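User: Predict the structure for this protein chain, please.
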Amino acid sequence: MYDAIFQAIPVVFSIKSLLLMFLGTGLGIAIGAMPGLTASMGVALLIPLTFGMPPAYGLVLLGSIYCGAIYGGSISAILLNVPGTPSSAATVLDGFPMTQRGEADKALKISTTASFTGGIISAFVLLFLAPPLARIALMFGASEYFWLALLGLSVIVSLSSANVVKGFLAAAFGLFVGSIGLDPLTGVPRFTFGVPNLLDGVNVIVLLIGLFSIPQALEMIESETVNRIPEIVERGVACKFRELWHEIAHVCWPTYIRSSILGTFIGIIPGTGGNVATFLGYEQAKRFSKHPEKFGTGWSEGVAGSEAANNGVTGGALVPLLTLGIPGDSVTAIMLGGLLIHGLQPGPRLFVQHPDVVYTFMVGMVVINVVMLIMGYFGSYLFAKVAKVPYSIVGPMVIALSVVGTYAIKNSMFDVGLMLFFGFIGYIMRKLAIPAGPAVLALILGPMAEENWRRAMLISGGEIGYMFSGILNLVLIVLFLLVLGVGIATFIKKGKRTEEFEADA
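Assistant: Here is the predicted structure, written as structure tokens:
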């Protein structure tokens, strides 16, 4: 492992790699700072930029966009009282009151430091935890991979906590799309409707861009909202370094560490992500604070807790993706598509077959967070200007980039038409409040589950007991039932709370 790390360091610190880090982080921060543009959409939209790149550099670029977008959401949360991404929702509670008090610069720098701390800790956890997990996963056979895929699919319940039925509808759509093309074992065409272009199946990037980018762009075009940075931000009140250091060292530092560790392990749990981490980080910061009564009034610990936690998710969510092939959240589900585009199959064999690529990416995640710290400290106000661009301009630009990016996959206008078709479906899904995440997971994990089930049945001669034999199978089954049970229990509990609220009203 250590030899691979040392071999990756020269690649990570090459001029090309560093330029890609600055480019990707800058693009990510700009996307995150624009309310309405999510990290998921940003990564899906910009995956085509990696075409033609060596896989290691392509992953470094995607990782930069991911980290930058998660951090960028805090900029608009602090300055505009609107979280740029859902994972910065809790940052609003104390970030904007600090801006109103004339402490916008201080809030931004505390957020930047918190994001760096969360990101760097999670990156080191990824670097040193992923390889041992991968070695364990090398023992997996067809039956273990089936249960692993099912475990990943159970995350759908968590991703659709608002409405499980709608989540399963989205998953059913994803499973159908995943079954299009040639049968993986027999080679018989399925659901191709006589269209030769569908024999290879639906490219996952086409679906991702269609479901995530086009609906968002159409909603932005529909919106008449134009964000404006308050005059107090334009004027700005610079925070003195000595004052900032005192705040970080004596008030925020313990919160940085606790929330970073919390966010990292939340990220490792599939189906949680930054949306959960930001509020849990905020709540634990309040619980351990010496001044919990100040939370919600513009208290720096509130900003520190939420931002350290949601950025801790970035490295944590990559652990199950790289070691097991299970995305930790919706963003890493899209990055899974990026890996597949480059011919990389996430899972334990990735560390054996492509150690140079995976270790370059993991070491790169450490450096990316340093780049994010530099760009955040010196460019946060500049990135905030992005929020002043009218949605009526941003929306058509997103559609144009979607078309160009989709065409670049295989130079195929058929893919462009298919992407626009999925975009229309995604738009309807969004209007009906049907989440897109379950569809993506089902598209990727559904064929994996089917193929390994059939392979296991061929190996065992149709003996169903083979699927329940061995310690690994039993562990995965228990985890599957546990995740499924927790998700259903959360849904039921939420439903009861809604009923109680309606009864009280």
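The chain is about 75% helix and 0% strand.
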